[in-house]
């Protein structure tokens, strides 16, 4: 039996889940790795070390539901290959996910976001393998993409499916957890590359100022400069009905203020974040908040990750604290930095993508939020 007979690639598994095809996903990683990120609906057995040690009974206790094919996963696809071999020896239809969770970091699904009062249709593109959320906004044949984190073909194919031409590509800020595909998407689509005004990005772009309006067909995006997560961070208000909040505000957390700055700089950015959040929360509470990340893998369920600003404000008690308390609390809760964030920032500042497979550089949870 060849290795190809024992493996399945990320795109095939992604399509199976998108189609609702029966499959059992068996995660054999250590528990501390699984808690960082997992595939929605997967089951877990902490068998990694036993499998590596060659224990033929490493999976003896696992109970597999039904007769659906099994896909085993680990970090990089090596130990899960041993798991697939053991299961096949028991007569189970099993394959290992090629490249493991590292390859899965590029998996995605999408959901349409109802936005009453807007002239646009909004598609939320969820990089479920990493928690990045990007958006395709279409109206009257034109389209804009916000915070593209996947290969440009994903957005171009989705736009073509809806009969839209991508005319604008926007970023909410300079990312630290994933490589930006904005410049590549803009170049391949012939679209304008629009970034918040700042001096960090070396590649050519059109700078956006606070209060500026971008027309996408009959729809309008208004720029709200919301510094704090980064100095240039901005949100985009769609037709007064939905707010793309980037990493400024999540549904149950706020953006961390400490990346790529000093201790003193983190405090200054936390203070700026407080005022930016107050500005956002003084908008109409019925406006839909559409964040740039989620802290959990997104299921293939077609349900958008969204909530009203009123719901988010009620959920986050920290937003009702005085500025000094907010700042001290945020700085005391800073999580570990995203893996390889300095290298990712350097590529994004240059407006470039690395050659070859980017998954090793981007692997791991996004860690951009403070709850």
Quickly count the domains. 2
The CATH superfamily label of the largest domain reads: Ribonuclease Z/Hydroxyacylglutathione hydrolase-like
Class inferred from helices and paired strands:
alpha/beta
Radius of gyration: 21 Å
Instruction: Please write the CATH class name of the largest domain.
Output: Alpha Beta
What CATH architecture of the largest domain would you give? 4-Layer Sandwich
Note poorly predicted spans. none
Report mean pLDDT, rounded to a whole number: 94
Helix content: 25-40%
> Major β-sheet, in short?
7 strands, mixed
Q: Could you tell me the CATH topology label of the largest domain.
A: Metallo-beta-lactamase, Chain A
Q: What general outline do the C-alpha atoms trace?
A: globular
Strand order of the largest sheet: 6-7-8-9-10-11-12
- Beta-strand content bin: 15-25%
Distance between the termini: 48 Å
| Strands, count | 20
Count, helices: 12
Model description:
It is built from twelve helices and 20 strands. It has a seven-stranded mixed β-sheet with strand order 6-7-8-9-10-11-12, covered by helices on one side. Strands 13-14-15-16-18-19 form a six-stranded mixed β-sheet. Strand 8 and strand 9 (142-146) form a beta hairpin. 28% of the residues lie in helices and 23% in strands. Helix 6 (152-161) packs across helix 7 (182-189). It is an alpha/beta fold and 371 residues long. It has helices at residues 10-19, 31-34, 48-52, 79-89, 100-104, 152-161, 182-189, 263-281, 309-315, 323-332, 341-350, 359-362; strands spanning 7-8, 24-27, 43-44, 70-73, 94-97, 109-113, 121-127, 132-139, 142-146, 165-170, 192-196, 206-208, 213-216, 219-225, 234-238, 242-246, 254-255, 288-291, 307-308, 369-370. It is globular and about 65 Å long. The chain folds into two domains: 3-104, Oxidized Rhodanese, domain 1, CATH 3.40.250; 109-370, Ribonuclease Z/Hydroxyacylglutathione hydrolase-like (Metallo-beta-lactamase, Chain A, 4-Layer Sandwich).
């Amino acid at each position: 039996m060849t290795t190809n007979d024992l493996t399945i690639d990320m795109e095939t598994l992604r399509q199976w889940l998108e189609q609702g095809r029966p499959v059992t996903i068996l995660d054999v990683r250590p528990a501390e790795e699984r808690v960082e990120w997992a595939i929605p609906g997967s089951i877990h057995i902490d068998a990694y070390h036993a499998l590596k040690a060659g224990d033929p009974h490493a999976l003896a206790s696992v109970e597999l539901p039904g007769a659906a094919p099994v896909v085993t996963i680990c970090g990089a696809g090596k130990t899960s290959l041993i798991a697939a071999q053991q299961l096949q020896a028991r007569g189970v239809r099993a394959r290992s996910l090629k490249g493991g969770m590292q390859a899965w970091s590029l998996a995605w699904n999408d959901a349409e976001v109802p936005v009453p009062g807007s002239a646009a249709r909004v598609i939320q593109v969820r990089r479920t393998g990493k928690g990045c959320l990007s958006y395709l906004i279409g109206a009257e044949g034109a389209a804009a993409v916000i915070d593209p984190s996947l290969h440009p073909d994903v957005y171009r194919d989705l736009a073509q499916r809806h009969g839209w031409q991508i005319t604008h590509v926007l970023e909410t800020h300079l990312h630290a957890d994933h490589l930006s595909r904005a410049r590549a998407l803009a170049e391949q689509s012939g679209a304008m590359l629009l970034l918040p005004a700042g001096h960090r990005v070396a590649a050519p772009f059109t700078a956006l100022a606070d209060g500026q309006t971008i027309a996408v067909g009959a729809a309008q995006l208004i720029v709200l400069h919301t510094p704090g997560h980064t100095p240039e961070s901005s949100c985009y208000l769609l037709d007064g009905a939905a707010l793309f909040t980037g990493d400024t505000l999540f549904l149950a957390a706020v953006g961390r203020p400490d990346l790529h700055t000093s201790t003193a700089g983190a405090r200054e950015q936390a203070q700026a974040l407080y005022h930016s959040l107050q500005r956002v929360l003084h908008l109409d509470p019925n406006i839909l908040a559409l964040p740039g990340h989620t802290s959990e893998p997104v299921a293939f369920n077609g349900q958008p990750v969204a909530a009203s600003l009123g719901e988010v404000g009620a959920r986050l008690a920290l937003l009702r604290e005085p500025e000094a308390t907010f700042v001290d609390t945020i700085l005391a809760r800073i999580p570990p930095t995203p893996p390889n964030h300095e290298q990712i920032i350097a590529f994004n500042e240059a407006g470039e993508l690395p050659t070859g497979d980017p998954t090793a550089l981007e692997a791991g949870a996004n860690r951009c939020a403070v709850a």
